[in-house]
Amino acid sequence: MKAGLRKIPVYTILVVLAFLWLLPIVSTLLVSFKDPQDFVSQKFYQMPTRFFLPQNFTKVMTTYRLGAHFVNSLLYAAAGTAVVIVAASMAGFSIVRLRPKFNFLLFLIIYSGTLFPFQMYLIPVYRLFNTLGLYDTRIGMVLIYSAICVPFSLFVYRGFYTTIPREIEEAAKLDGCGPVRSFLSVFIPQSLPPTAVVALFQATWIWNDLLFGMVLSRTQNVRPIMVAVATMSGYGGGNIPWIMTAVIFTSIPTVLLFVFLRRFFIQGMVMSVSG
Amino acid sequence: MVVLLIVPMMQNVYYSFFDWDGLGTPVFNGLKNYASLFVDRLIAGSMLNTVLWVVFTLAFPAMGGLLVAVFVAGLRGEGTFKSIFFIPLTISFVATGTIWTYMFSRELGVLNGMFKLLGLPVKLSWLTSVPLNTYSMLIAWTWQQLGTNMVMFLMGLGTIPKDPVEACLIDGANKWQTFVHVKFPMLRPITTVVITMAMVNSFKVFDIIYVMTRGGPYQSSETLAVSMFRETFTLFHMGYGAAISVLLSVIVIVISAAYIRRMSKRDMLYY
């Protein structure tokens, strides 16, 4: 009992914090239920007079055409992640297996995508895309997103493959497996954890990206979703119930990803910490 | 990969020595871009804001994450609290910025509404008055970032063996002493990562500022990352923008040097 009483201050602090953390979420949900008149005339905590979410949603889809951007981003996230999984798992395998002597370049690659600010290659990529005709194309977006995801994914795969005991590989070799065969039948079947980590982190990252979408695209058919949401709100303006509906709508995919792959989030953290 | 990332980085350094509007021919102007960096009042202002972001990030999301992790660990209801602090992680910076723009809205916002509800006669212009706008955005940032650090520290706390902690308690140390002398030193690897990542990320903040204030009013809430974007893609001072990004990258490399060295040393063992 005494121990229980001593915990009261801790609980109080945590409950207050939890309240502060939930407040924005609850307010956002509540606002998205309101029609614009209710929103202006009511207090923030009042329940709406009628449930207006479907109408808000229709408005968001027709006026702001968020559906089109949603499809764009879905494509980028899926294609980008798929490309990166194939490329990074093979590269990770060859690095672990062949132990090439270009450590410095390797580190440069890894840190270019994980630590360096993206601004460092924004201008040249913008220019390159203009010269190659990749500016404002879907292929261009998939390309740049996969390129930026490679470093982190390579890091994850390489880190994971170094934990696969060499004996297994030697055994495969004795059984007559070449490098390709041993990659396909020894490494790939064990690759679920790093692949899930890569899928979770990189799909989320691509989905959430604002900077590259803003710089490298212009039209509705190409612009990713977050750029659309960001321009919707503008600076201090816009219709808040619609914007909040858009926020909720565009957050659904990443929230779902986290719900299903939560276990791998922790694992990804472990991997990126301990390499 | 190399074409899309490494070569552009080199090119970027190269561009930073030119005066270039993005369309015409770049004109070489040596170190002039870098020289102007040091006399540009806007850059000085955004440098100051950047430092503010870094200090604040270490003080609140990082330290706060540690405190919450320590409080929450082993508590009844640990799972519930963890989930609550975890929610903001699952949404984007753009969504965070948008939500908090509403929270901070002067007339219809939740925070001013709360003040009114509590009978406080204050109505703040959270995002349009200086320097409050930067602090407001830092609140949104803390809301989003605390969860990551909490998860990291919880992970670290989970790996601490029980024996030394128990031995310490038996020797008569109280919980606070145990934490300072036993647990905290054992958390050091995690602490290094959290501190490095917190600093690096706060140097790179862009989305939240762009969504919430566009760096305004009058560039008052810009950080280096936002200034770089404005110079480059609004004013088309490509060379100058490149110089800002080089400056930003150099700072990031310097602060993460210790971390990079440690990581590469350990990586060498594999070879």
TL;DR?
Chain A is an all-alpha fold and 275 residues long.
**Rg of chain A from C-alpha positions?**
23 Å
User: What percent strand of chain B?
Assistant: under 5%
Main sheet: strand order of chain B: 1-2
What is the 3D shape of chain A?
globular
Tally of separate helices of chain A: 14
Shape by Cα distribution of chain B: globular
Uncertain residue segments of chain B: none
Strand content of chain A is: under 5%
Question: Distance between termini of chain A?
Answer: 44 Å
Largest sheet of chain A: none
Average predicted confidence as pLDDT of chain A: 82
Q: What CATH architecture of one domain in chain B would you give?
A: Orthogonal Bundle
Structural class of chain B: mainly alpha
- What's the number of extended β-strand segments of chain B? 2
What does this entry look like structurally?
The complex is a heterodimer of chains A (275) and B (271). Chain A is an all-alpha fold and 275 residues long. Chain A folds into two domains: 2-52, no CATH class; 64-274, MetI-like fold. Chain A contains 14 helices and no strands. In chain A, helix 5 (66-98) runs parallel beside helix 8 (138-161), helix 8 (138-161) runs antiparallel to helix 11 and helix 13 packs across helix 14 (240-274). Chain A is globular, with a radius of gyration of 23 Å. Chain B has a two-stranded antiparallel sheet with strand order 1-2. The mean pLDDT of chain B is 82. The longest helix of chain B is centred in the N-terminal third of the chain and has 32 residues, at 41-72. Chain B has 271 residues and is mainly α. Chain B has a domain at 50-238: MetI-like (MetI-like fold), CATH 1.10.3720. The interface between A and B is large, with 83 and 85 residues.
Summarize this structure as a short list of keywords or feature phrases.
heterodimer, A: 275 residues, mainly alpha, MetI-like fold, 2 domains, 0% strand, B: 271 residues, two-stranded antiparallel ribbon, 14 helices, 2 strands, globular
